[in-house]
Amino acid sequence: MTNRLADSPSLYLRKHAENPIDWWPWCDEALERARADDKPIFLSIGYSSCHWCTVMEGEAFSDEAIAAYMNANFIPIKVDREERPDIDSIYMQALQMLTGQGGWPLNVMLHPETRVPFYGGTYFPLEQKYGRPGFLQVLTALRQFYDTEKARLAEITEAVMGNLHQGAQLPESPTIPSAEVLYAGLTTNAKILIPSGQGTCFPMIPYAAAVLGGRRFDLELDVAHICGQRGQDMALGGIYDHVGGGFHRYTVDPSWTVPHFEKMLYDNGMIVEYLADLWASGQQEPAFERAIALTHTWLLREMTAPEGYFYAAQDADSFVAANDAEPEEGAFYAWPYKTLESALTPDQLQALANAFAVTHEGNFEGQIVLQRFDLGPLTTEVEAALDQLFTLRYGTPAVELETFPPAIDNQAAKTQTWPGRIPPVTDTKLIVAWNSLMISGLARAATVFQNRNYLATAVAAAEHIRQHQWIGSQLHRLGYDGTPQVPAQSEDYALLVKALLDLHQANLAMPGSATDTDWLTLAISTQQEFDYLLWSADQGGYLSAAGGDDLLVQERAYQDSATPAANGVVVANLVRLSLLTENLDYLDRADRTLQAFGTVIEQIPRACPSLLAGLNWFRNGTVVKAIAEIIPELAAEYWPTTVFTVADDLSAGAVGMVCRGTTCLAVADSGDKLRQQLQTLRPR
């Protein structure tokens, strides 16, 4: 027996289709039913590759007694946060207000009339454990509270709603934040990147990228070292899949050793761009180049649809055997020592142990997660050992395996014949924002390494979005089997415009690239659509999503999380568009956006590194107008607030000129002269 989620295109929702809970998707009918029946809404938000979401689905949400109580006393609604980040953001803020912390699965109880939360939590176990009450105990207490404590209920919901409104109404700054505010904010974010020796380790690329962009400022910190260390930790650590390529989401320890094994497209796109920028800045570490190359190979092999777009994510868990009831975390990636002994020659095993942390006892539940000791290139023998492990995992040598079909759900994973290990489930939906991050990463890597294969992969994904993700004049966020769904939100617009601008710059850096699309013109039209639909004329900045009766507040995203916030990205986009088109209207809108978030930038810079990066662009945006032949060499270097454009009207003997604001330096007669001018521009 299945519930209403069985026909959903969302993999995450379909994972709950056989629960005995009578789940609803988020829809007007469900919200109205809650009002009519006077039942609190149990809203549960997660995503397909979320480990603890999977655990709770298999435990509490599959329990008959819990389902019977839930169905009788609540209206249960499931939301895929990757489909509706606007809903997720609002209720995550509310959860943090109620409990002081957040995470997924995000479970909140809503008043049926107002949809305002009055209780929340993350993972609830079936029975009492981990210091958490059993889920049925929680549900029973909450229904009793709803029925008998109306005055207290009203106090809680009024307080939550008041805080949500206050958070959405930011005090506007009368001026653009100063250079001192920019430097102080970047210093704060640089300190966040310094290893603390405790807790989990996330890539935090919005922070690292913003700080790297301020490397020429006097921040009283060794920014190059801090940013380089972040790159080294990722490229050497267990967060990187040294056998198959691609980065996991984070590590559960402070030493970058044992990952939470899901692989998210957005992380990989941002990390590729960051490592390419580190290389361009002069930190030409072979481990960075290898990580980028193998991530591109993984992307083509496992994460690229035949149509050219990129899939969203791969699960952390996978089945060891087809008859297993539940998948195990990391089963596809970790290595028992005995497996290494049997698969490798003694010389290969010794070579692997010299380069990686390989011990009999392992570092993850008796198994081994590969983590490199040292920088530099790997030896031929170590590469041969890794190739052998690849063959063991996938059942086919890497040189022979161009594509590896995705397991689209648990049933497919258990019933398909796999030549090697059973792979984790892949969420095959297209998300415009995440595809855009990957396009940007590949475009930058293509420029830095002059690699046309990287650019071709990026162009194919962008072309698919261009041709298939608009319905009429409206961009749509998701694609399911070629069908666009859910109107685009601000992060989709902001990151897509960035990706299109990055493709435009990559094409200039790699002349003769095979594409007829004018990426700059497409970026301009996409920005116009973004302005029309989501610009907040009264407050400045961009709304997260178009208004609807189902949203408690209209948010303007400014806080970075694993991905950059739209309003930070859009400031940089607007400055770039102004530099490339000489249209100052873009600069005016960037100015207004920075004023809208000026107080935030000054008071809580650790929340908004992307706005700091946008402020850096606004204050230091530079355009190099040059002959086409000189651009590839300069564009492959790291000029963090600079765009390039072809100049056809230079004087005889000139190769280009550097302009910032309304001032241009003297025309240069060589690439070295242009480089010298860029280096001597004073930060402001």
Characterization of the model:
It contains 26 helices and 20 strands. The mean pLDDT is 95. A 5-stranded mixed sheet has the order 1-3-2-4-5, with helices on both faces. Strands 13, 14, 15 and 16 form a 4-stranded antiparallel sheet that branches. α5 crosses α7 (150-168), α17 packs antiparallel against α18 and α19 packs antiparallel against α20 (519-534). The relative contact order is 0.09. It is α+β, with helices and mostly antiparallel strands and 684 residues long.
Structural key phrases:
four-stranded antiparallel sheet; 684 residues; 26 helices; single chain; five-stranded mixed sheet
Distance, first to last CA: 64 Å
Number of helices: 26
Averaging pLDDT over every residue, what do you get?
95
What is the topology, as strand order, of the major beta sheet? Answer: 1-3-2-4-5
Overall outline: globular
Largest sheet: 5 strands, mixed
Residue share in helix: 40-55%
Structural class: alpha+beta
- How many beta-strand runs? 20
- Determine Rg (CA atoms, Å): 26 Å
Beta-strand content estimate? 5-15%
**Uncertain regions spanning at least 5 consecutive residues:** none
